[in-house]
Amino acid sequence: MDEGTDARDILENKLLPLRRGYIGVVNRSQKDIDGRKDITAALQAERKFFLSHPSYRHLADRMGTGYLQKVLNQQLTNHIRDTLPALRSKLQSQLLSIEKEVEEYKNFRPDDPGRKTKALLQSVLRRDANAM
Fold first, then answer.
1. Is residue 31 part of a domain?
2. Which of 28, 35, 41, 50 has CB atoms 3.0–4.6 Å from 63's, for a disulfide?
3. Domain count along the chain
4. What are the helix (H) ranges across the chain?
5. Residue 116 resides in a domain
6. Over 90: is that where the pLDDT of 41 sits?
7. Which domain holds residue 103?
8. pTM of this structure
9. Do residues 23 and 69 touch, judged by C-beta distance below 8 A?
10. How far are the Cα atoms of 103, 117, 119 from residue 124, in angstroms, in the given order?
11. Is position 129 within any domain?
């Protein structure tokens, strides 16, 4: 944002409320990049900005790249924790199904006349199901 712009209402989640709110960050400017300002110095400058700016100092503990990183990491962790049990259960179910199917083919003999009859019957049933 341009110098002199006040984003307090946005950062306080008043102007356009978001469920999880906003986290302000201060990125390196092109001048900082051209001047080879390193990331550590940029993060220190960001922290100093939020702590010293009259409009943002009351929000300083919930602003900055480090806080954004922490929040995103926590959200990812929560998502994994919430979805992993269902995914694991689904995979175990599929594994059991595949193991059962493999067991059926353990004693498979292509020249078995019963096998040929079963294959023919399945083929006819599939064709009838597709015709409907």
1. yes
2. 50
3. 1
4. 8-11, 30-34, 39-52, 65-105, 113-131
5. no
6. yes
7. 7-109
8. 0.68
9. no
10. 25, 11, 9
11. no
Straight-line distance from the first to the last Cα atom of the chain, in angstroms, rounded to the nearest whole number: 63
Q: Which of 15-19, 32-36, 38-42, 118-122 has the lowest mean pLDDT?
A: 118-122
CA 39 to CA 10: how far, in whole Å? 26
34 found inside a domain: yes
Give the residue from 5, 54, 44, 50 showing the smallest Cα distance to 23: 50
**By the 8 A CB rule, do 46 and 65 touch?**
yes
d(CA 9, CA 14): 5
Q: Could you tell me how far CA 21 lies from the centroid of its own chain? A: 18
Contact of 49 with 3, CB cutoff 8 Å: no
